[in-house]
Amino acid sequence: MSKEIKEIAAGLKAFLQNAQEEDLILKAALAQDKAAFTSDVKNSGITENHSPLKMQNRDIHPLPKENSPLDGKTSDSKTKEIAYIAQMINGCQKCELGKTRIKAVPGEGNVNAKIMFVGEGPGYEEDRQGRPFVGRAGQLLDKIIAAMGFTREEVFIANIVKCHPMVDPSNPDKRSNDRAPYPDEIAVCRRYLEQQIKTISPDYVVALGGVAAKTLISQNQTFGAVRGKIFDLNLTCVELDKPVKILATFHPAALLRNPGWKKEAWENLKVLLADMGKMPKAK
Question: What's the pTM value of the predicted model, to 2 decimals?
């Protein structure tokens, strides 16, 4: 193993694994929130419009700012970093999701992507293939990406949590077994996503659905209040190397259930495209 790879591995290992004790503290702090969150989701009937409550404890130590192996990234070093993060995700069992999954779903795409799409979590098909958005919702996302003037190979696609949240994890072959991830699951998993965002350093992140929007934009505002607006992305676990913008719109799964929302979703994405200079801004 070359010196460069060793440095990358050491830095990422310190970033991603130095959290055993803090995980226990975090889970204890969030335990009382979990029941309320579960009740909220059950009563709403729409998982995309709900998300974890505010993280009360930091569950991770950021990499040092000086002499970080993640500074001055090249395409080759980005590829190695993303691969190492995926390796850590594939071996992670820090929450119950990691113990009941079939396959982890780290994410995939262009390490130099200008846009990252972030969903809620893997579903039935993703759990079996280990790839994000490969089911019906993924097929619709591919069409959305194409309509925006990109290909799937040009963007990066990931999720808030990397393993399939199931209502009945004892029966993974059951269909319609999806649920929203719990706060402690998101808190444990978000370090991986945030490090992916930092490594790829996109210009824009598209948050797909309420869980992604609440996690990455605001815990204190409703999905409807933030949807279709551009915000500056501020992460919890890492400091970004440059400004990144974020916009939220409906999750493709929600659009499959509610086709009438597709027009609103496209209007949301037109705001992002206009900000990118790919179409005129609305007067």
Answer: 0.78
